[in-house]
Amino acid sequence: MKPHELAGDFRLEDVWAVGAIHTPGAGPDDFPAVLDAMLGLDEPGTQRDHVPSDLRAATPVYRTADECVLELPNRTVHAVVHLGWVPAEQQLRMAVLVKPNGLLGRLYLAAITPFRHLLVLPAFTRRWENAWLTATSPLPGAHYADSFSRSVDVTATAEQWARALFGDVPGPAETLIWRGFLGLRLSRGASPETVAGWRIVERGEHRIRLEARSWFLTGNLVVEAKDGRLTLSTYLRYDRRLGRVVWPPLSAVHRYLAPGLLRDAKPRPISA
Fold this sequence. Notes:
The chain is an alpha+beta fold. The chain folds into two domains: 3-135; 144-264, Alpha-D-Glucose-1,6-Bisphosphate, Chain A, domain 4. It is built from six helices and eleven strands. The strands form two sheets. The protein has a six-stranded antiparallel beta sheet with strand order 6-11-10-9-8-7. Helix 2 crosses helix 3 (102-135). It is elongated and about 65 Å long.
């Protein structure tokens, strides 16, 4: 059954494939787990705080092994949201079909059109990705998470990639953000047990996890290098209320810089 068969008089408003909802670490059969993390569909009676507010009233129409359709009526529009699972790419792809409710609905759709692709959908998908990443975070109780990846044609261990990304010791920009703004307690000087001052808490050929703490937050950086892809994931837990104030504006800078870090990284052999 296709969504347009359920909503023949609806119009297709968006197909969100470019910049799709990424779910790193999800396996081919993890679609139910992804939905639970992002939408809380199997959590009746819970607050589902991580779910975008517009979707908390969504009603599942049907769900299969690789797709789900949600119905969402409100005062302005009657929407049908289709989520399709692409396991090979660890992605959800979303299509939205809408039917405006009278004049108010038509005015609403006209008003948000200029901002939908620029602001609304990127924020929407980022919240869903954050829900998945925090649900699968190696850092217990994480409040923030993001993940960036790119294809690579260089064979190197995760630690070699981590040192290529951040260096053996933090540079001036990293020192300003990590020590200055976040107050992270970083090790001084190069060491085989640290990367850029972050302590290595998990080390393997394809994955390395780094940790650093301040008095108000704890951070993890996870670098994975496997099957021709390099992935950098960041997890933060706010240990004091100040973390909720300090990190959100800095996170925008972080998300802007992270793709460039991945693009420019060139691994070198690790000295004995």
